[in-house]
Amino acid sequence: MNHLILIKHAMPQIDETKLSSNWQLSDPGRASCKPLAHALKSYKPDLFITSEEPKARETGQAAAKHLQIPCSSAPNLHEHDRKGFAFEHDREIWHNTVQTFFNRPNDLIFGSETANQARDRFARAVENAVQKYPQQTIAIAAHGTVISLLVAHQTQTDGFDLWKKLNLPSFVVLDLPDCKLNTLVTQIG
Questions:
Q1: pLDDT, tens digit, for every residue of 43-89?
Q2: 76 near 125, Cβ under 8 Å?
Q3: 80: which residues sit within 8 A by CB, 6+ positions away?
Q4: What CATH homologous superfamily does 3-185 map to?
Q5: For the chain, what are the domain ranges?
Q6: Beta partners for 171?
Q7: Which of 2, 51, 69, 113 is the most buried (most CB within 10 A)?
Q8: Whose CA is closest to 186, among 173, 164, 171?
Q9: What single-letter DSSP state applies at residue 22?
């Protein structure tokens, strides 16, 4: 059976002077890519595709190198577009904002995409990858919010609850072709 593996990137180096879409991996994030690759090995990924954001691209490249499989980036796998939204220091405020985002998917809560717009964009990009590489297990290194939106929609589960569970890094395995939930790995190492 082939799988679709959706991977939340490793820990970035937070730089409040830059948009989060430009953050790169931190040293601990880079170090976590080897255990991530080890955790993915049993699912036998054939290739990695990554978001074009540095933190996801670096996660995918490092894990793919450990697994000795090809890796490339693709458009539209990026995180929910948060341009114009400043870094939120207060965890409770941040969680309340994200919960509202999940609970009101048609409303523009923050950034420049609604939850449904972000999910639909990401879903199209994932479907393009699945169609481009039929009969293969694809690992996609991306971002927690869009992964949670897509998986919740596919499996009729609570997206915000999934979002809270996904650590840096973590992954969800879906069975292809029906995208049935196989495994949720919330902690690496």
A1: 999 999 999 999 999 999 999 999 999 999 999 999 999 988 888 88
A2: yes
A3: 101, 111, 113, 115, 118, 143, 145, 146, 149
A4: Phosphoglycerate mutase-like (3.40.50.1240)
A5: 3-185
A6: 7, 185
A7: 51
A8: 171
A9: G
CA distance 147 to 163: 8
Going by C-alpha positions, the residue among 7, 109, 111 that lies closest to residue 51 is: 7
Residues 6+ apart with CB under 8 A from 150: 6, 119, 122, 123, 126
The pairing of beta strand 3-8 with beta strand 47-50: unpaired
Starting at the earlier edge strand, list the strands of the sheet with 71-73. 71-73, 47-50, 138-142, 3-8, 170-175, 180-185
Place of tokens 């490092």: 62
For residue 147, give the nearest of 128, 173, 129 by alpha carbon.
173
Least Cα distance to 13 among 33, 27, 1, 3 occurs for 27
